[in-house]
Amino acid sequence: MNRMEIVNPVARVSEGEKAASGKGVASLQGLTVGLLDNGMPHAGDFLSHVGEALSERYGAKLFVRKKGFTARSAGKDMLDEIAGSCQVAVTGFGI
Questions:
Q1: pTM above 0.90, yes or no
Q2: Which of 4, 8, 23, 33 measures 20 to 30 Å from 46, CA to CA?
Q3: CB burial readout 66-93, b (16+ within 10 A) else e
Q4: pLDDT score for 81
Q5: What total number of domains does the chain contain?
C-alpha cells in the first residue's frame, strides 16, 4: 500500500503577528475539492495523485483548474470560481 504524507505548508509568523487561517472541515467525505495546477513542473502530476487518492478514500468530487503561466496570479475570477464551487482547495507546486 502506498503511503501519503501530508505536509502543513503554513509559514511560521513572528511573535505578535497573527497568521490568517481558513475554516477547517471535519471530514473530506463527499466534499468537492478544488485542485489548482500552478503551472510549475510536476504540479499536475502531484495534483493528479492527490485527487485520485481523495476520490478513492473519501469519495471527493474533483474540480480541476490550471492557471497557466507560473509567474502570474490565478486571478480573482478563477479563485472566486474555485471558492464558490469547492469546500477545500489544494494548489500544486513543482521542482
A1: no
A2: 23
A3: ebeeeeeebeeebbeebeeebbbbbbbe
A4: 95
A5: 1
Residue 49 in any domain: the answer is: yes
CB count within 10 Å of CB 36 equals 21
Separation CA 73–CA 92 (nearest Å): 13
Q: Which three cell numbers stand for residue 49?
A: 495523485
Q: In the numeric block, which cell numbers belong to residue 13?
A: 509568523
Question: Which residues span the domain enclosing 83?
Answer: 32-91
Report the amino acid identity of residue 66. Answer: K
Give the span between the Cα atoms of 90 and 49, in whole angstroms: 12
Do 64 and 38 touch, CB atoms closer than 8 A?
Answer: no
